[in-house]
Amino acid sequence: MLPSFFIAHGAPLLAVEKNEYTDFLNQMSKDLPRPKAIVLFSAHWESNHQKVSEVKEYSTIYDFGGFDPALYTIKYPAKGDQQISEDIKNLFKANDVPYEVESSRGLDHGAWVVLRLLYPNADIPVIAMSVNPKLPPADQYKIGKSLSALRANDVLIIASGGTSHNLRALKWADNDQVDQWALEFEDWLAHHLHTWDIESLFKYNSLAPYAEYSVPPYGNEHFIPLFYAMGAADDVKKASLLHRSFRYGNLAHSVWQFG
């Protein structure tokens, strides 16, 4: 059974950079069994209702501005998988999770940056999924949990976002010194993930040190994919930190494996 993952997608520049984190993601897929398909929740697809993609071949969305022009030439023409989309809908129905089908939206950079680093040939089917930052964490966890059976069918579940992700606090010229508040938040998070303390994790915004900096009220959509990934491994309840590094003073590049 494949694990589920939370993977930070960082800044769009990761798509054209070579560094410690990109090297890790390049190698990560080589260490995993090849999945039949990938179900990916992206922080950059927000919706008040859970969306399930039914797309034959995805376009590439450039949902950012002001970066290296090379970014806007990148294509990631992954195909969908009608059967896996149907399986997801059936699991949602069985678990009383309301959903809507999306048949035209492409892959945003929260999806294609991660996918391209893991599987550069775009040769594994993808089912894109939205996230809802307005839901209580317990409901986000439930959505992930309802899909846990897919893992037994060689389907890889990835949630893409960022744990410490405060765009207004980034120091674009500083790549060496990590802000203490980001470290303390990430250490708190790691402790409660390792112990699968979902009661505390669901209250991260009031219990975690410096939560208001790491997960600002305007940016919780990057943090909450974590709960979708955790829920998908509720049957095992095991968390492992595979990678953690920082860019721009406080932007966490973290990869968590669940299951």
What does this structure look like?
- The protein is of the alpha/beta class and about 260 residues long.
- It has 9 helices and 8 strands.
- The strands form 2 sheets. Strands 5-2-6-1-8-7 form a 6-stranded mixed β-sheet, sandwiched between helices.
- Helix 2 (about 80-95) links the parallel strand 3 (about 50-55) and strand 4.
- Helix 4 (about 135-145) packs across helix 9.
- The protein starts with a strand and ends with a strand.
- The mean pLDDT is about 95.
Class based on secondary structure composition and strand pairing: alpha/beta
Number of discrete helical segments: 9
| Mass-distribution shape | globular
Ranges where pLDDT stays below 50 over 5 or more residues in a row are: none
* C-alpha termini separation: 9 Å
- Largest sheet report: 6 strands, mixed
Number of DSSP E strands: 8
Report the portion of residues in β strands: 15-25%
Please provide the ordered H/E string of secondary-structure elements: EHEEHEHEHEHHHHHEE
Strand order of the largest sheet: 5-2-6-1-8-7
Radius of gyration: 17 Å
On the 0-100 scale, what is the average pLDDT? 97
Please bin the fraction of helical residues: 25-40%
